Amino acid sequence: MDWPHDPDSEEGSEGMRKYGQAIIAKKVDEDEDFPLSTAEFVEEHGDDPIRIDYETVVSLRDIFENVEEESFEAFVPFHKAVGRAMRENGYWFYEGADQFAETKNSA
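-> structure tokens emitted (107 positions)
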């Protein structure tokens, strides 16, 4: 998809590019947005661009196609579900992420 604007904006993120799950996390207010309806969140932010790596930008809607939960009561379960969906569907570019996730889950 061609984006009408740079998802990093002119400033970027603290002087750098914004990537993946960090962009999504910044769209929620931990104190005010929960409980959070997945459908309403996607309705509001679905067309927002999410930079996966230095070459790839997808819509938030694309990522949330793989989030199974209908709602979230708190930020941590939301963040975990988004991360899981990103890893399982090739939207996670961090080197070694699969090894780290496996190590943490096996403990």
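The helical segments are 20-25, 38-45, 60-64, 75-88, 97-106.
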